[in-house]
Amino acid sequence: MLWLYLICVPFKPDVISELKLQGVWEHITHQRVPGIDVLGKYKLIFWYADDYTQPYIRDVVDDIQTYLNAGGKLILSSWQGIRNMLGGTYPYGFEPSDWLYGWWGIDSVGLVNTADFVGTYGEAGYPDLQVDTSEIISSWDGALKYVELLYPVEAEVIARFSSRSGDYDSIPVAIKHDMLGSNCVVYFGFPLYFMELNDVRELMTMVLEQLGVVETVTQRLPAIPSIVYQAYELPQGVNVRLYDVMGRYLGTYHELRRLKPGVYFMQLLGTNTVRKLTFIK
Rounded to 5 degrees, what are φ and ψ at 55? Predict the structure, then answer.
């Protein structure tokens, strides 16, 4: 699968290196955002921007619509992304004839201007996220401002607001909307850069699984040592490397008996094939 990572400011470098992107487009290098001539080459676009004073995406909203109409997939993580696309001020309300209602599956969008966002409650099997307080300016006291509140009409909620004050608890802040054919939008109403690295890594893995980029294997077996053989029927001499969710190397499949139930990743040596394994007792 070909996919492009669009960036207006630095993202988590460890996460980006793991994604094995076929293209990276940095605004600081190109001094422009890509149009449909670039977007159309890729099946999946990950657009990341957290400078809400620079609404670069507004220049290519029509191109993004064209891209999605042609069957593209879009992951968008942005600060005040809806305002950057549409202009105007919060709150926003949409009619069934509006693009964001039909294609994104959202009815309305609000904004929390105060520093109250400390993370998310994962929904639909997605992990919780915690704010990386080392990235937050000190005057915000470990919480994030300017987080969008999303009110879906058809979209699936994948994350809900974790509010320090409790005023906004459980309001949706991230959605996934599958459209006709292969089209799909995953939208985060906050910048992932300010979330804990390991949380982002787990989240992005699950998002990419849902979009068909990473395959998942879940097995319920009474004995952990037999899972690789039963799931993959590995011939003698084939070696497999195992990693935990933080990317740390654990050993080969011969050492599976040392693993506890949980989530792991395995790679067939000599290939780029990676599989997620969920061991459940």
Answer: -80, 65
Q: Examine the fold and report which residue of 210, 225, 253 is the final residue of a domain before the chain moves on.
A: 210
Q: Which amino acid is at 151?
A: Y
pLDDT in the model for residue 1: 34
Cis check for the bond before 55: say yes or no (omega within 30 of 0): no
Residue of 154, 156, 147, 200 lying closest to 176 (CA atoms): 156
The DSSP line for 112-163 is: E-SS-EEEEEE-TTPPPEEB-GGGS-GGGTT-B--EEEEEESSSEEEEEEEE
pLDDT per residue over 66-78, tens digit each?
888 888 888 898 8
Report the C-alpha gap between 231 and 195 in whole angstroms. Answer: 34
Find the CATH number of the domain harbouring 232: 2.60.40
Q: What is the pTM of this model?
A: 0.71
